[in-house]
TrEMBL record:
This is Fe-S cluster assembly ATPase SufC. Pfam families: ABC_tran (PF00005). The gene is sufC. Gene3D superfamilies: P-loop containing nucleotide triphosphate hydrolases. NCBIfam families: sufC (TIGR01978). Belongs to the ABC transporter superfamily. Ycf16 family. Keywords: ATP-binding, Nucleotide-binding.
Amino acid sequence: MSTLKISNLHVSIEDKQILKGVNLIVKSGEVHAIMGPNGTGKSTLASALMGHPKYEVSEGEVFLDDENLLELEVDERARAGMFLAMQYPAEVPGVTNSDFMRSAMKAVNDGQPIPLFDFIGKYEKAAKELKMREDLPHRYLNEGFSGGEKKRNEILQLKMLKPKFAVLDEIDSGLDIDALRIVGENVNSMVSDQFGCILITHYQRILDHIKPTNVHIMIDGKIVLSGGQELIEKIDQNGYEWVKEELGIDFVETDNE
């Protein structure tokens, strides 16, 4: 059993403060959905947790068990058990999916090589569970992939690396109904006392497939409301205006996350 604890996290980008005191505790076996309008800081939280150099942490703490993540480099955070499924996965021409994946597995396992036979078996099994194309191992990383294929490829990496915690940043964007179900089933199958996740989304539809144990609403760089399924249903019916009115928050949506 592991715990990810975020305390009073303040994050800025180019001298503009985005996160203004985020507090969150996630335990393995839990799925925490973070919802909110555009420009509230959801993607900033995801990037800051993985150590993106563009984001400056000015205050607060993030601990994975007894390890201070803010003192670690990106690769060290991955080895500690963190994973980020990106909103916009990058294309890497010249590097095949299988070569990338095997190198990533070696890196998070302190340089221990993965036996090729074992790797192939696990890789093919995970790809089949995600119903991905058979030529996937030989394709260059995300090059020429559709939006949905890129998102499934992120979940393939998640299944292979088996981190303690994953931050899934809008993995539902670009997925059709069938792909959404497949991705949801695969993420659900991983949730256990060895794995928990933070799921960032705007919409209810992914939450029909990945059932959260906790739901949080983020507005203006802070988590302003927490609850369960009832919050999802209320947001689906009424949007976020009721949250602003109920809590007396004056906030205008932007594209800056």
